[in-house]
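Hi L., both proteins are below.
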Amino acid sequence: MWLTDMQKIGVGLTSFGALFMLLGVMLFFDGALLALGNILFLGGLFLIIGPQKTFYFFARKNKLRGTACFLGGILLVFLKWPAIGVLVEMFGFLNLFGDFFPVILTFLRQLPFIGTFLNLPYLRPLLDRLAGSRTSVV
C-alpha cells in the first residue's frame, strides 16, 4: 500500500507532533511545546486518514469519553494548565487509541532486536496483559 503525498505529510506532522509532546513533557511540561505538539498531531492525523474518517473516528459513540478527555486535555494545555492537561489528554488518548495497542505490539514483536526483547519470558505475559492481547486458539 502506497501513501499519497498528503498522507506522507501527515505522517511527518504526526511524528513531529509526538516529538514536540515528548520534549514538552521532558522539559517540565513546557506549554508551548505541548500546544505545538498537539496541533501537529491532530493536523497529521487529519491528513493521514482524511477529514470524514477523522470526524467519524472522534464522533463514534463508544469513543465520546476519550474524545472529550483528549480535547479537554488539549484545551487545558492551551489555558496554561499543562501538567493537568497532559494527564487528562493521556487518559483520552488511551481511551481513543487503546484498540490499536495489540496491533502495535504484534508489529513490534516482528522487528529484529525489539522483538527478541519483547518476547522475553517474563516480559511477554506482562505486555500481553497491558495491551489486552488475546492468545490465538489456532
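That was the first. Here is the second:
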Amino acid sequence: MLCIAGGAVPMDHHRPGPRRDLSLASLPAGVVPFVALLLLQRRPVAGRALLVSGPGCPGHGLCRSNVQEQTRKQVALLNATAQDLFSLYLKCQGEPFSSETDKLCNPGSVFFPAFRVNRTSERKEVMVAMYKLFAFLNASLGNITRDQEELNPTAKELLERLHNTTKTTRGLISNLTCLLCKNYNVFQVDVSYGESSKGKSTFKKKQQGCQVLRKYVQVIAQAARVLLPHLSPP
C-alpha cells in the first residue's frame, strides 16, 4: 500500500537513528560560515539579509566549473516536481486533507520568508533572496520528513520524494554559497526558519506540512521565473 495513515505516533518527533554530524570539522572546506549558520541555528529568526564582505570567502577553487548550470538545473528540477510532491503528501495524509485542501492547507497562517525580488532585481539581491528561501525550505523539509517517518512510515514513495527534494535543496544551497562568495564576496546571510512541529498533535503536524508544501509550490514557481534568467548562458 502506498500510504497508511493513523498509526501510533510518538509525540516527540526526534526518532532514533543516524545523527547528522553538526561539528564544524564535518563541514565542507571553505563554506563554514554559511553552512554552520544553516545547520546550527535552530530558533526562528527574522531579519534582513546580513551582507558581510571581507576576507571570509575562500578562493574561487570552491566552485566547480559548471556551478551556474548545475544551479539552474536544480531550481528547474525543484519547480518541476513540487506539485507532484504536494499531491502525494495530500494523498498520504488521508481525510480531511484530501477533501478540504483549500481550507486546511491555506498557507496564510504559516511563516515564510519574504520574497520580493523579480527579474529586474540586481543579481546579487536575487542570489541572497534565493539563499534565504532555500535555507528555510531545507529546514522545513527536514521537519516534514521527520514527521512523516513517524506518521506514515510505510509511505515509501512519499518519503523517498521528500528525501530527494531535501538532497536537491542542500545541493542548491551549496551552489548558491559558492556563487555568493565567488561573485560578491558575501559569506554570511542571516536566514529565518519556521515554527517547529515538535510536540504538536498528529493533525497539526499534518496540517503544518500541508501548508508549507502548498506555499512551496507557489514560491518555487516564482523563484524559477526570477532566478533562471540570471543563470542562463550569455
